[in-house]
Design a protein that fits this description.
Distance between the termini: 50 Å
Shape: globular
Largest sheet: 7 strands, antiparallel
Bound molecules: flavin-adenine dinucleotide, FE2/S2 (inorganic) cluster
Number of domains: 3
Helix content: 10-25%
Radius of gyration: 19 Å
CATH class of the largest domain: Alpha Beta
Structural class: alpha/beta
CATH topology of the largest domain: Rossmann fold
Strand order of the largest sheet: 4-3-7-1-2-6-5
CATH superfamily of the largest domain: Nucleotide-binding domain of ferredoxin-NADP reductase (FNR) module
Oligomer: single chain
Number of strands: 16
Order of helices and strands: EEHEEEEHEEHEHEEHEHEEEE
Strand content: 25-35%
Number of helices: 6
Length: 292
C-alpha cells in the first residue's frame, strides 16, 4: 500500500479483527488487524478500545499504549498491545479470540520526541510500560543513538519484553523488587551507572510513582526527560477533561493539561508530579485559593 502524508495523518475509527490473543506472564498480548492505524502510529501513541461488544453498557473506551505495528501486508496492518486483565473491560479483552471484532480508535496522543543528535538514551519501563519502548528503541537506533533499556517490575511474571530487549537495545538491565530475576530493587537503582556511561536522554513509561522517581533522578544528572503518563481517561479525544494533570508551560504558568491530546508523553520536568490529582494554587484559570 502506498501511503502519503495526507492519508497517514490523524486517528481513525476502525472495526478491527483479532489476529491473536496470547498470555505472556501476567499479561495478554493482543494483535489486531486494524487497517490504517499502523501507518499513522509513532512510538508513544495509544489506541482506545470499545469493550464488552455490541450490547455492552461500558460506554467508555479503554486506553492502551501501542506496543508494535506492522504496516499492511498479507493480513492488513496490525496493531499490538499488551495489557493486564484488571477490571471488567480488560477481562472481556482477555476472552477475545481470533476473528472477533473490536472497535478501535487510534493512534491517539502525542508521541515521544526524538533527539536530533545521536546521543545516549535510557529507556525505562515498569511492567507493561515497557511495551511502547520497543518501537522507540528502533527509531532511536535508526538515528544512531545508543539505546540502554531498564525494565523493572515487582516480580518476574510482571516484566514485559526482557528477552526482546536484548535484541532491541545496546544494553539491558532488569530489576525486580523481589529479586526473582535481575537486580533486586527498582529501576532507579540501575540508572546512575547509565549516567556514568554518558546517557543524556531518559524516556520512561510505567506507574506514576516510577515516572516521578525516574524524572527526579534524571534531572539531578542533567538529563532531558520524556515520560508517557497513564492518567485515567474517559473520552480519549480531548473533550471531557477527565485526564488532566498540572503541567508547567514554557511561560512558567501551570495549566491543567489533557493527557490524551497534549500527552500522554510530556517533558518530565514540566509535570508537577506532587500535585497530580489536584488543581494547584496559581494554576491558570483556577480559583484564587486553588483547591482539591
Ligand atoms: C495512555 C494510557 C495507556 C495505557 N496503556 C496500557 C497498557 O499498555 N496496558 C494496560 O494494561 N493498561 C494500560 N492502560 C490502563 C488501561 O487503560 C486500564 O487498565 C483499563 O482502562 C482498565 O479497564 P478495565 O475495564 O479493565 O478496568 P475498570 O473496570 O475501569 O477498573 C478496574 C480496576 O482497575 C483500576 N484501574 C483502571 N484504570 C487504571 C489505571 N490506568 N491504572 C491503575 N488502575 C486502574 C480501577 O481503579 C479499578 O480498581 C493505559 C492507560 C492510559 C491512559
Ligand atoms: S480523556 Fe477526555 S479529555 Fe482526555
Amino acid at each position: 500500500m502506498t501511503s502519503t502524508a495526507a492519508t497517514t495523518r490523524g486517528p481513525l475509527q476502525v472495526t478491527a479483527k483479532v489476529f491473536s490473543n496470547k498470555r505472556v506472564g501476567d499479561y495478554w498480548h493482543l494483535t489486531l488487524v486494524a487497517d490504517g492505524i499502523a501507518e499513522r502510529t509513532r512510538p508513544g501513541s495509544f489506541v482506545a478500545l470499545a469493550v464488552g461488544g455490541d450490547t455492552s453498557g461500558a460506554l467508555l473506551r479503554r486506553a492502551f499504549s501501542i506496543y508494535r505495528v506492522r504496516p499492511a501486508g498479507v493480513y492488513g496492518g496490525t496493531v499490538e498491545i499488551v495489557f493486564s486483565a484488571r477490571g471488567r473491560g480488560t477481562q472481556w479483552m482477555a476472552r477475545l479470540a481470533a476473528h472477533d471484532p473490536v472497535d478501535v480508535v487510534g493512534p491517539l496522543g502525542r508521541p515521544f520526541a526524538l533527539p536530533k543528535e545521536p546521543v545516549g538514551c535510557a529507556l525505562v519501563g515498569g511492567g507493561y510500560g515497557s511495551a511502547p519502548l520497543f518501537g522507540l528503541a528502533e527509531r532511536l537506533r535508526e538515528r544512531k543513538c545508543s539505546v540502554h533499556m531498564v525494565l523493572g517490575a515487582a516480580t518476574e511474571s510482571r516484566l514485559f519484553g526482557a528477552l526482546e530487549a536484548k535484541r532491541a537495545a545496546h544494553s539491558v538491565t532488569v530489576t525486580t523488587e523481589d529479586g526473582s530475576v535481575g537486580i533486586k530493587g527498582v529501576v532507579t537503582d540501575a540508572l546512575p551507572a547509565l549516567f556514568n556511561r554518558g546517557v543524556e536522554v531518559v524516556y520512561s513509561c510505567g506507574p506514576m510513582g516510577m515516572l516521578k522517581a525516574v524524572t527526579q533522578l534524571a534531572l539531578e544528572h542533567g538529563a532531558w526527560t520524556q515520560t508517557a503518563v497513564e492518567e485515567d481517561m474517559a473520552c480519549g479525544i480531548g473533550v471531557c477533561m477527565t485526564c488532566v494533570l498540572p503541567v508547567v508551560g514554557d511561560d512558567n504558568v501551570t495549566r491543567m493539561v489533557r493527557s490524551c491530546v497534549e500527552g500522554p508523553v510530556f517533558a518530565g520536568d514540566k509535570v508537577r508530579w506532587d500535585d497530580i490529582g489536584t488543581v494547584p494554587p496559581g494554576t491558570f484559570g483556577a480559583p484564587r485559593s486553588g483547591g482539591r
